[in-house]
Structure formats: structure tokens, C-alpha cells
Amino acid sequence: MTPCTATTAEHALVCSPPPRFGSGAKGQYSQGWLLCEMLLLGKAVLVAIYGLDDVFPDTRTGNVGLAFMFCCILCSALCVALETLLVTHFVTGRRDKARALTSEETPLLEKPDGVDEAAAQQASDARTILTLVAYSAQDTVLLSVAFAAGALAALALALIPYFTGQIVDYATIDQDSHAFTLTTGKLLAASLACAIFTGIRGGLFTVGITRLNVRLRTNLFASLLRQDMGYFDTAKSGEITSRLAADTTTVADQICLNINVLMRSLTQAVLVLIFMFHASWRLAVITFIMIPCALSISKVYGAYFRKLGKKVQAELAEANAVADEALGNVGTVRAHAAEDSVKAAYAAKLQLFYVLEMKTALAYCTYMVTATFLPNVVSAGVLFYGGHLVLANRMSAGALVSFMLYQQSLSGSFQSMGDVLSALSAAVGAADKVVELIHRQPATPAPGTYTPDTFAGRLQLSDVHFRYPARPDAPVLNGLSLQVNPGEVVALVGSSGGGKSSIVKLIQHFYMPSQGHVRFDGRDVGLYNPKWLRRRVAIVNQEPTLFARSIKRNILYGLEREDGVPAAEVPTQADVEHAAQLANIHHVILAMPQGYDSECGERGVQLSGGQKQRIAIARALVRRPAVLLLDEATSALDADSEAAVQDALDGIMKHHTVLVVAHRLSTIQNATRILVVSKGTVVEQGRHEDLIEAGGTYSALVRRQMQKSASTMSLTMRPDQGPGPSMFL
Ligand SMILES: Nc1ncnc2c1ncn2[C@@H]1O[C@H](COP(=O)(O)OP(=O)(O)OP(=O)(O)O)[C@@H](O)[C@H]1O
After folding, report:
1. Which of 319, 345, 652, 664 makes the best surface tag, with the fewest CB within 10 Å?
2. Ligand 1 and 470: CB distance under 6 A
3. Residue ranges of the ABC transmembrane type-1 domain (predicted)?
4. CATH code at 459-716
5. 513 in helix, strand or coil?
6. In this predicted model, what pLDDT tens digit does every residue of 111-157 receive, in sequence order?
């Protein structure tokens, strides 16, 4: 019966103390460790069961026996160290990969030491822990039951050595077969109780982990959706999804599992200590002094080893940088016949890495000798003194066996607590990023709440200056002013990169101008309730995005019950079909086998570009908006699709207030006003004819496009189409 079995298994799962790397190394280390322990335990049991007098007839021989045991332990420790040295060599590659991953996950480990930084880190850790506690508080009952089950399991576990000692006494000294059988039954009952409560604890914690995981994901997702567009411009999408997909699970798993083990080890240690004092207070005091000494040595070594690990990692990163640079520019390397110098540079970096790794291996070897030897020294010391107590009839042999088992269990608990605490701090480091993101406040102020009874849709931009947060040094709009009155169709034209789409984004309040105002009906766009406003100001983007759902649900996107829209306000099937008719796509949808229920596929891949765009137009129109923002994009469409989209837009523009980023001459010709945008300002405005007559930027733009169009006309023009409508500006 080994009371540490559960500890060892769980320990291996959750703890990542610095000196143990790679499952192979850890496995072999554990085997060697177990061998030593079994050797020692075997001796202890032998000595205790048969009585020191039988095995070693007198105290002197007993001492010789113990000296022999010390030799055995030392040999075992050396064997383990040797084995470790070899394993260190073999697992070097795997370990560095693991380290690189760990450092990527927890860059706080890589930050330079500094008082301010350390204080900030502490504050951030505290906030992370508080957040996680707050999230877990919702499962107080579940977790309390899990902890109670854990405590009962620890109690039952602590009883096992106690009964084992009694069994030894009944079988050897007292020779009481009835008590022997009864105690064996008790031992089995304690084992069963321990197993059942361990199972309950494990199951409940798994439920807790999953619930925390779901809660973290939900809150993180909500926080991400709340963020300003500037955040998405700078954040890497892979990183964001990895936070959501991997980090949340890691955090929930690591934190819960480590807290679970910590609580269990703590309870176990307390109970074991009580039993130990009960078995022999003298021995308990000795153990209590020796175990922390042994653990302190491990701790000091751990810090040194981590430092060494960082250096190794830095060296490896430099070697990788040399390889990356060479492989990323292999053509240049070859063209300049620089292969030899690149190889030499890489080898030099690897040599530095190798030397450091040798130091690491040596340090690891030393550690293993100490770490293997010291616990056994503790055991041997306890056994030596305990043997004397037994010889002096101050303690029974069974109590000594119990004590030895408790001592094993206690050092296991201490070790496990130390490991779990360091693993917890790493997990808190990983959680930091998730919690930080959950608490991140968008750069834009809180959404407005204004929902007026009437909305004419008068749009006004006055003296707007703007730079994207991702490129704060590049001004995009420089004091731009414009007005769109209800019923007007205003077209924005100008060369690419002039800032037309940026104007549309500001009107949507995706970004805030650094200076100036964007207003609807005289009120700042940010004051309006965004949900309310999105129904009154609709957009058709340059590259409309459809989602993997039915056509009907794509048209209704954002207007369904799940979006918080009251049932009475959700557009009906008739509304959807009407919008599709206006968008010139109804007949196409009806021709599909499943009509409005036809799937669009991921990003709308099952539809053509023109169909996608017309569905996006229907999506805008189903809102019955007061203002339509159109960022025309027809350049990617073939002539037929373009004509279909254009027909739809022409129809719409007659009945709406429209601000259109125009690429077609037909749109521009019909516009109430044309604004020519260049370098972030309106350089010309007026009707088509007036601007042509003025002979400025606009007329030059039209002339240039006419020439370009004439040269490609035969490819892009339908037979019934003149050169005009298919022009792109
Ligand atoms: N998200 C962004 N982050 C940083 N800079 C951006 C971003 N979007 C656009 N820009 C930059 O802002 C400037 C104006 O871009 P914008 O898309 O508004 O021009 P445009 O007139 O609509 O061009 P086009 O007609 O080609 O669509 C460009 O220099 C562009 O590189």
C-alpha cells in the first residue's frame, strides 16, 4: 500500500518544477526515485517487522546496517544522476521547444527585473487572482463540496499508514489474529473511502474547470466584440483567437488543477502531521526540522537553474535569428555565395548554446544527486532515531512503520505544494493576458444611449482630422467638412488612398476623429445608441461579408430575436423578400433549390461576387434605413454581375439619402453633389457637369478614366452598355 500513489500521478500532471523536463526525463527520473524509495522503505519495513534485534542483533550491527543503507541510497542517487545526465542530452531539443513555448505563453518571465515592473506585475497578478476568484465564486457550492471530498480523501489516506502500522504490530508483536483481520478490513475501508472521495473531488473539479473555462471564454469574447476598431487594426488575429481558444483552457485547467492539488496537499500535510505527532512526537520534531532544510536546497537550486535556462534560451534565440535571416533570404545568400559565412555564424551561435547546455547538464546532475540523496537522508535519519526508540521500547515497530509512511507522504505533500505554487504562479502569468483582455477598456468612449423619436438623417462632418490608431504618424483626413441633407445623393470620388472609405468608417463611429465632429441631425454620432443607429444608417461595404448561414439569416443579420430585437420589430419574410426585390436578387434566390433557406457557405463562398453584393444590399435595405452608406465595389465583378448590382443601386438611390463612395460614372452623374476627396480634404464639389466645366481635378480624373476605359472597353462592356456607366474612378 503506497499512500503517495495519487500524489505522484497528479503531481506529474500539474507540476512543472524547473529541473524536470520532457516526459521521458521525468518518467525515468520518477522510476529512479521510486526505486530508491522502495529500497529504503523495504529496509525500514524489514527492520520494523522483524524487530531490530532479529535483523541486526545488537545496536552496533544495527548501525552497520544503517550505514549499509546509506551506501545503497548514495549508489541509487549516483545512478539516477548518471541517467539524468544522459537524458538531459537527449531531451535538449524537446526541452528548448517547451521552454520557448512557455516563455511565449508567459512573457512576464522574460521581462527584465525592475522595481516598478515587479510592482506592476504584482498588481496585475493580484487583479488576475481576484478576477479568477470572482469567476469561481459563482461555483462556491460545487467547489466547497469538492474541497470537502478532498479533505475526506486526505483523511482516509492519512489513516492508511496508521492501520498499516497497527497491522504490523498485530501480526508480529501482539500476534492477535482477530485484531489483525479487523484492522485489515479497516485499512481496506479507508482505501475505498479514499478512492471514492478522490473520485468525487476529481469529478467536481473537472466540472468546475469546465464552468470556469466557459465563463472565461464568454467574457473574453464579449470583451473582444466591445473593443474599438483600432485594437483590431493592431492586434494579430491569430493571437486573439489563440487567447480565446487555447489560453482560456490553459488558465482554467492549470489554475483549477493546481489549486485542487494545493488544497489536497495542504490538507494531507496537516492531517499527516497530526498523525505523526500522535505516533511519536520526537520523531515528528526531527522530521519537521529536516524536511524544510531539504526543500530549501531544492528551491535555491531551482532559482539558479531558471537563470541558466534563460541564458540558454537567449542563445538559442540568437542562433534561430541567424538561421531565419539566412533561410528567409536564401536567394540573396546564394547570389552572394555567402553560404559558408552563414554556416559559420550559425555554428558559432550553436557552440555558445552547447557550452551553456553543458553547464545546465552539470547543474542538473548535481541537483539530481542532492535531490535524490537528501530525502533519503531524512528517511534514514528518522529510521535511525526511530530504531533507537524501538530498541529502547519507547515506540512500537508498527508505529515506526506508520511513521515512515507518514514521513514519505509528508515530504510528498511539501514537494507537491512547492511545485504547485510555482506552477500556479506560471498559470497566473498566462491568466494575466486573458484577464487583461477581459478588462480592456475600448479606446472609444462608452456607447451612447440617445434614441430620438424622429430621425431625418442629416449628416454633417465639420473640420474632421483623423489618423488611424495603428498609424498615428500618417494623417488621413485633414480638416474635412461635408454635409448630406435628407434625400440627397452625395458621391465621394478621388484617387485611391485619398480617405473616402475612412470617411465612411468615421460615420459608422468605428473610429473617433482626433479633431472635429461627425454629426447626425446636429448631434454627435457617438451620442446615439449604436443598435438604434445601425437600423437607421445602413452600410453596404466594398467587400461585403456573408456568414455561414442561410440567405435569409444573412439578410436578417443583426435583426433577429437573438440579437435582442423585440419580436415585433424583427422583419417578416415579406420584408426580407421586399428588400431582396429592391436589391435585384429575389429571383436569383427563388431559383435556388432551397430558396431563402439556401446556405451561403463560409464567407459566402457558395455565391458569386455579384450575388453576395446584392444580398448585402438587401441586408442594408431590410432595415428601412434613413441613410445609406455605399462603398461601391464593382471592380471585381464581371459585366453581368456589375450591371445587376448597378440596377439595384440605381433603384435605391432614387428613394434614399445616400453617401456613396463612387466608382461608376453613372452613379456620379445622378448624384446631387460630387465631392472630390484628395489627401484627406474636399478639393472640389458640385454637380457633374459643373465640375467637368470647371476643368479641375474631377475633370482630369474623368478624362483619365475614360481613356483607360476605352482601352479595356471591349473586355468589360456589355453589348447594350455605353462606355459611360462602366467607368471606374
Ligand atoms: N485600418 C487602417 N489602419 C491604418 N491605415 C489605414 C487603415 N485603413 C486605411 N488606411 C490608410 O488610410 C489612407 C486612406 O485610406 P482609405 O481606404 O480611406 O482610402 P480610399 O480613398 O477609400 O481608397 P480606395 O479608393 O482605394 O478604397 C490610406 O493611406 C490607407 O493606407
Report:
1. 345
2. yes
3. 145-426
4. 3.40.50.300
5. coil
6. 444 446 666 666 777 777 788 888 888 888 988 898 889 889 888 88
